[in-house]
UniProtKB/TrEMBL annotation:
Protein name (Swiss-Prot/TrEMBL): p-selectin
Keywords: Lectin
Gene3D superfamilies with a match to the protein in the record: Mannose-Binding Protein A, subunit A
Lineage: Eukaryota, Metazoa, Chordata, Craniata, Vertebrata
Span of domain C-type lectin: 1-76
SUPFAM superfamilies from the UniProt entry: C-type lectin-like (SSF56436)
Length: 139
């Protein structure tokens, strides 16, 4: 589904794509995302949401966006949490590259274009084994 199709779908049900007004809302939306999710921010201007309210929340890195050659460096970053169940060595660069290529194809199928994917972790590791939580007593 493209951004425009998602907007049409939402509007036909008397609502609109989500708008993010502050960091708290950004975190709340991120915490409930289970699939690819379209936001209401329109990529042509970044100034307005799809419901025409002004975009007042930004979550840019320091010194971004940059104005170069009289153009606005229009970009957005999204973070996805993925869960893989595989016996493959997910720390192997070849496996990581193959996964990125597969993700790229899937995102293009959903209408995304002109994007880059990469693995990032603050500790330099791309993958971490999920820790099983111990069940405690129920009171």
């Amino acid at each position: 589904m493209t951004w425009y199709e998602a907007r049409t779908y939402c509007r036909s049900r008397y609502t609109d794509l989500v708008t993010v007004r502050n960091q708290s809302e950004n975190e709340q939306i991120f915490s409930v995302m289970t699939t690819i999710t379209w936001l209401g921010l329109h990529r042509k201007t970044w100034a307005y949401w799809s419901d025409q309210t002004p975009n007042t929340f930004t979550n840019w890195n320091e010194n971004h966006p940059k104005h170069t050659d009289s153009r606005l460096d229009s970009c957005a970053a999204q973070t996805f949490k993925l869960k893989f169940q595989s016996k493959a060595d997910l720390k192997d660069p070849a496996i990581q590259q193959q996964l990125l290529e597969q993700l790229h194809v899937e995102l293009e199928k959903h209408g995304l274009s002109d994007f880059k994917l990469r693995w990032t972790q603050k500790d330099g590791q791309a993958f971490h084994k999920e820790q099983k939580m111990k069940k405690g007593p129920v009171w």
